[in-house]
């Protein structure tokens, strides 16, 4: 196996990051956001633009990548995270881009996070690199970021239909705090307390 390095994303990783964010969302959610008149390719173009932006929740600035070595651009995993207090400010880019691309207004969407937590928005490892500890390493990097930036907690949503992911999160110390809904799917909100 190649040596895996976790580092900050760069703007030119945007297409690879967008692909993995869409996998994390799951393609049913992506299609739900794109609407019946648009394709997953259309949504991928939108997500790529959002990753390239400086002011988006999906920005490369908010992303850690797992790569096959320190210099490589072969991205095998991602973790997108940001301050939950900035959700509305960061989500504005998604709302504007979706309105322009799809003609759909998502400004009334439920909040997926709140002030007081570093929110782990999207975690995904490429299928050919799973079961190698990469997701755990990315999650631990997210927890460490939360600790170093003095957040009280690190939070995430997990699809209620994904018990394997929930088991991983719980094994690392995340606890269930409530139900949620996102992208047309029932979710569970889990939190890792840092204080």
Q: Name the helicity range.
A: 25-40%
Figure out the total of helices: 6
* Average of the residue pLDDT scores: 94
The shape, in one word, is globular
Q: How are the strands of the biggest sheet laid out side by side?
A: 1-2-3-4-5-7-6
| Intertermini distance | 37 Å
Rg:
16 Å
* Order of secondary-structure elements: EHHHEEHEHEHEE
Low-confidence residue ranges: none
Kindly name the structural category: alpha+beta
Produce the secondary structure layout.
Elements: E1 5-8, H1 14-25, H2 27-34, H3 40-52, E2 63-67, E3 75-83, H4 87-102, E4 117-125, H5 134-148, E5 153-159, H6 163-171, E6 175-182, E7 185-193
Parallel strand pairs: 4-5
Antiparallel strand pairs: 1-2, 2-3, 3-4, 5-7, 6-7
Helix pairs in contact: 1-2, 1-3, 3-4
Describe the structure.
The structure is a single chain. It contains 6 helices and 7 strands; from the N terminus they run E-H-H-H-E-E-H-E-H-E-H-E-E. With 195 residues, the protein is α+β, with helices and mostly antiparallel strands. Strand 4, helix 5 and strand 5 form a beta-alpha-beta unit.
């Amino acid at each position: 196996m190649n040596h895996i390095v976790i580092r900050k994303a760069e703007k030119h990783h945007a297409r690879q990051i967008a692909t993995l964010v869409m996998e994390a969302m799951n393609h049913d959610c992506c299609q739900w956001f794109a609407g019946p008149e648009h394709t997953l390719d259309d949504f991928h173009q939108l997500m790529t633009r959002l990753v390239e932006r400086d002011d988006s929740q999906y920005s490369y600035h908010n992303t850690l990548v797992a790569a096959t070595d320190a210099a490589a651009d072969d991205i095998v995993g991602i973790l997108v995270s940001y301050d939950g207090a900035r959700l509305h400010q960061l989500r504005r880019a998604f709302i504007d881009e979706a309105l322009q691309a799809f003609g759909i207004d998502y400004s009334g969407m439920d909040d997926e996070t709140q002030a007081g937590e570093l929110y782990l928005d999207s975690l995904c490892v490429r299928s050919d690199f799973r079961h190698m500890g990469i997701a755990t390493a990315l999650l631990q990097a997210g927890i460490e970021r939360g600790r170093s930036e003095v957040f009280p907690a690190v939070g995430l949503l997990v699809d209620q239909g994904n018990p394997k992911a929930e088991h991983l999160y719980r094994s690392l110390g995340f606890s269930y705090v409530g139900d949620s809904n996102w992208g047309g799917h029932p979710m569970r909100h889990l939190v890792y307390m840092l204080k």
